[in-house]
Amino acid sequence: MTHPRTDWTRAEIADLFNLPLTELLYRAATVHRENHPPAEVQLCTLLSIKTGGCPEDCGYCSQSVKADSGVEATKLMDVQAVLQRAAQAKDAGSQRFCMGAAWRNPKDRDMPAIVEIVKGVSAMGLETCMTLGMLTPQQAEMLAEAGLDYYNHNIDSSPEYYERVISTRTMADRLDTLSHVRAAGINVCSGGIVGMGETREDRVGFIHTLATLPQHPESVPVNALVPIKGTVLGDMLADTPLAKIDDIEFVRTVAVARITMPLSMVRLSAGRESMSEATQALCFMAGANSIFTGDKLLTAVNAGDDKDAALFAKLGLTALKGEEPMRACKALEAVG
Fold first, then answer.
1. In whole angstroms, what separates CA 187 from the centre of its chain?
2. CA distance linking residue 192 with residue 197, whole number of Å
3. 329 flagged as catalytic
4. Burial of 278 (0-12, 13-18, 19+ CB in 10 A)
5. pLDDT one-digit tens code per residue, 113-142
6. Is the confidence at residue 333, as pLDDT, over 90?
7. CA–CA gap between residue 132 and residue 60 (Å, rounded)
8. Where are the beta strands (DSSP E) in the chain?
9. Catalytic residue at 283?
10. What average pLDDT does this structure show over 180-188?
11. Is 44 a catalytic residue?
């Protein structure tokens, strides 16, 4: 098993990006096989438990109050309604149930319902993950006591490009929340979005920020921007070549994430619905071993269970076995 490094330099990561694609894929696949079942992919389901009305100005997000995307604000879903959706996800084969609320940060009055949701989903035998915005140390402790397995808080891009996408919170704010989550004993899920008009250098900086954290995130979602009309980036990029990142460059990003964070689950996330089967196959070869299932993410469309089943059959992939999803986490703890 690979001993993870946290001292990667930007130059080293840039050198990985610059490798011939076949060599990069070979190295990534080798690292993947050393640390994960090579033909198994974790199935996750994502549910928006509170949609729209977010005061943040993230340029990619249709749920921001700054966006003219047509997404209407809703209240937090009823606990039982969330648990029903979780049961449906488990029946469909998901191993992790991820829940997102469009908040800058949860209010204390929201926490009792959130705690009940975590306890209920966990009792079904599903891994639990939540993304609720920024957390205080006390809120992180409450989630840990409820049994939350993972907390998602993406860094989005490189430190240098971040301020061109979001102005209402800083990269330091995001890293502080990750520290609170880690200190509470919750596994970290953190990745970002590529195809927002950033450069290769920014993608290097994005990977470098995650790969040099004191402990790597146990899950690293890699998203390709889905340009949504009415959002800043959607309107800016929809009619330009930058609206969709080059497929090979996306594969390179996945491969470099796998090499630099060998024990993490690397999730092929948003944007997959527009990728060809060949591109997705290359991502799996590059070390992606987690996907979102279903036909919808938070507000964006997704590939759908039937398409995923057909693709898995064509590629000879299977769902990650029930006892496996926490393997990388336990390995990280053992070497940490």
1. 13
2. 13
3. no
4. exposed
5. 999 999 999 999 999 999 999 999 999 999
6. no
7. 17
8. 40-50, 96-101, 127-131, 150-152, 187-189, 192-194, 219-224, 265-268, 290-292, 318-319
9. no
10. 96
11. no
